[in-house]
Amino acid sequence: MTGRHAQPVGDAPAGGVTYAAAGVDTEAGDRAVELMKDAVRATHGPAVLGGVGGFAGLFDLSLVARYRHPLLATSTDGVGTKVAIAQAMDVHDTIGFDLVGMVVDDIVVVGAEPLFMTDYIATGRVVPERMAAVVRGIAAACSETGTALVGGETAEHPGLLGPDEYDVAGAATGIVEADDVLGPERVREGDVVLAMASSGLHSNGYSLVRRVLEVSGWGLEREVAELGRTVGEELLEPTRLYTRPCLELARAEGAAVHAYSHVTGGGLAANLARVLPTGLVAEVDRAAWTVPPVFEMVRRLGGVPWEDLERTLNLGVGMVAVVAPEAVDRALVALGERGVPAWVLGTVQADDGAQGPDVVRGTKGVDGGAVRMRGAYRV
Q1: Minimal CA–CA distance to 133: which of 69, 86, 101, 66?
Q2: What integer pLDDT is reported at residue 2 of this predicted model?
Q3: Packing angle of the helix pair 82-89, 206-216 (nearest 10 deg)
Q4: pLDDT tens across 248-300, in order?
């Protein structure tokens, strides 16, 4: 007893305590794997070794021989409380696009090509069809981005999560040539900031949005003319995947992409400031685009101040590119040809050190450049 005195214990219940009685159904987990494994296999190319269900995924890295100085890039994330919308609507095959978007497109920001991804799903009760739908969405998004889904885990947590609750997270790894890394070191005064349209809320700010719906009394089933569908359908719109368009643009002849910024938690200004060097400021015109109706709906219903909305939601801009001025027209055409609406947001200038509510600098621990938001939004 390793130094402890044995203590008598009470009688076990009749029949004994089983794992199933504790709330964990291993057979349901096995059925879930059977339902999802074909979708997972569809993401595997020749570099993936072994099948579904191993203790670890194997990826053949002999491709690094093509690189002079290969760097691995990695990222991990989840989708936040957007899963509550999926659970409320009982629609589970789109949340995987949000997960892949949040993880893989962070890797793309540095110019890295995604190689593989793993996922983790925690749930109060394994419903095989539900878990398989989630993973099928992840696999479909991985296929769209050229990412192999090499492993994952579904964990049953009775008592910690409700029977119909789950949460998802993932991690991905990519590769980039050291000479091709994008970021603040490449950005120059006179560069132009381009916006790429979001598909909606993406996966950020849902705690605010859900609270607004709660205080307004609006339900997910409510039809909204401005949206052309129900509130729930709008909120569940999958995150746009920028992976292939951004990688193709960065590699295109004469594209002169210097940096990307993925507009996630914190909004446009806070994320753009992370990819600017000290001494430069991006001047962004709020009137450069029309804010999509869903954001105006949230603002109006909740009386949310514009400054709070701006710090929380993407407001219609999901990814930003900083490019050389001579490459602007080519970049806009290239993105449009790949189905991504894009437009000019502003320019990069010398930082005059100005302060104020419209200036953002030093976000998320990054000692970098600044962003000054000018004008008013169009709705």
Answers
A1: 86
A2: 39
A3: 50
A4: 999 987 779 999 999 999 999 999 999 999 999 999 999 999 999 999 999 99
For residue range 349-377, what is the model confidence (pLDDT) as tens digits? 999 988 999 999 877 777 889 999 999 99
**Six-digit token string for 118:** 């793993």
Answer whether 105's CB lies under 8 Å from 241's CB. yes
Query: H or E element: which one contains 272?
Result: helix 267-273
Three-class SS state of 32? helix
Q: How far apart are CA 109 and CA 328, in angstroms?
A: 18
Q: What is the pLDDT of residues 134-177, one digit of tens each?
A: 999 999 999 999 999 998 889 999 999 999 999 999 999 999 99
Q: What is the pLDDT of residues 108-127, one digit of tens each?
A: 999 999 999 999 999 999 99
Distance of CA 351 to CAs 190, 224, 236, 282, 355, Å? Answer: 12, 43, 39, 8, 11
Cβ–Cβ < 8 Å for 377, 300 = no
pLDDT tens digits for range 192-201: 999 999 999 9
Tally: H helices and E strands in the chain:
11, 15
Residue among 19, 204, 63, 39 nearest 119 (CA): 39
Region for 77 from its dihedrals, namely left if φ exceeds 0, alpha if ψ lies in -120 to 50, beta otherwise: beta
Separation of alpha carbons 175 and 143, rounded Å: 17
Comparing 35-44, 77-86, 210-219, 232-241, the range with the smallest average pLDDT is 35-44
C-beta of residue 283 within 8 angstroms of C-beta of residue 239 = no
Taken in order of first residue, the domains within the chain and their CATH numbers are: 25-60+67-177 (3.30.1330.10), 184-374 (3.90.650.10)
For residues 310-331, one letter each, b for 16 or more C-beta atoms within 10 angstroms of the residue's C-beta and e for the rest, the string is bbbbbbbbbbbbbbbeebbebb
Of the candidates 221, 214, 174, which has an alpha carbon nearest to the alpha carbon of residue 67? 174
Q: Looking at residue 361, what DSSP letter applies?
A: E
- 375 class by beta-carbon count within 10 Å (0-12 exposed, 13-18 middle, 19+ buried): exposed
- pLDDT one-digit tens code per residue, 240-256: 999 999 999 999 877 79
